[in-house]
Amino acid sequence: MKKIKISHILIYILLILLMLLCVVPFYIMIINATHSTNELYTGLSVMPGDQLLINIRNMLDKVDMPRGFWNSFVIAISSTLLSVYFGTMTAFGLFEYKFKLRKVIYVTLMISMMVPGQLGIIGLFKLSNTLNLLNTYWPIVLPSIANASTIFFILQYLQSSMSEELFESARIEGAGELRIFHTFVLPLSKPAISTMFIFNFVSYWNNFFTPMILLFDDDKFTVPLLINNLNNGMLQDLGAKYAAIAVSIIPIIVVYCFISKSLTKGMMAGAIKS
């Protein structure tokens, strides 16, 4: 009995340490956003300052952050919706239809998840240049249709939670494949879809590399690119930079608050097979 209590204490200590590792960086970031650049250069502070509004004003003077928010929102929402919708459709196809190349496609998806996306940026740049799509959002948004991680995750959820008898019953009643997908698969896959929604949204919102390569005009820059622009100059305004970083995580927090319950269910997808 004594060993069990000690093990519980060790588990709680480990969980507290993990929580601190997650929370402390965000706390320091917010605290830094309330201090001036001179104060930040003097050392680390754990108490809030009184320069937050000044830092935000300096940030807005240097970069058009509202415009960047809109650009990032358009890219993140469009890419997330496309990746979730077509990823679920592809997962449904791999789950439901038994065709010859099914295993080949599955293995290809697994391999593609192991290859860094940055390796294909040269090919994407040349293709975008050939199609006259450079300096537009299309080459950033359209590749999200083929999101291997989304397909894999939702496929695992379908295999653990869906019943083929349900689809057969729907076909007997005269439902077509698209109707089955929209009426049964999408609603019943809500936990997995919500999980992929938040992960993809965070990924596309924070995407820096691809927009940096494909976008040239300042009025089309996303939030990460505008934050990077705050690095220009010999004397960096660290207060404005930290303020921009702190403000940039607000949409992520808002999205998470809206779908946090579904996210928790999605993380447990496949843990218990009914």
Model description:
With 274 residues, this protein is mainly α. It has helices at residues 2-32, 37-42, 52-62, 65-96, 102-114, 121-130, 138-141, 148-161, 164-172, 177-188, 190-205, 209-214, 223-229, 238-248, 250-267. Helix 4 (65-96) crosses helix 8 and helix 4 (65-96) packs antiparallel against helix 11. It starts with a helix and ends in a 7-residue tail after the last helix.
Features:
274 residues, mainly alpha, 73% helix, globular
Number of strands: 0
What is the terminal separation in angstroms?
34 Å
Structural class of the secondary elements? mainly alpha
Chain-averaged pLDDT: 89
The helix tally amounts to 15
Shape: globular
**Which strand-content bin applies to the residues?**
under 5%
Give helix and strand order, one letter per element, not per position.
HHHHHHHHHHHHHHH
- Classify the oligomer: single chain
Radius of gyration from CA coordinates:
23 Å
> Could you give a short account of the major beta sheet?
none
Helix proportion of residues, in percent? over 70%
Low-confidence parts: 270-274
Give the SSE map.
Elements: H1 2-32, H2 37-42, H3 52-62, H4 65-96, H5 102-114, H6 121-130, H7 138-141, H8 148-161, H9 164-172, H10 177-188, H11 190-205, H12 209-214, H13 223-229, H14 238-248, H15 250-267
Helix pairs in contact: 1-14, 3-14, 4-8, 4-11, 4-13, 5-8, 8-11, 11-15
Structure described in brief:
This protein is 73% helix and 0% strand. The protein has 274 residues and is mostly helical.
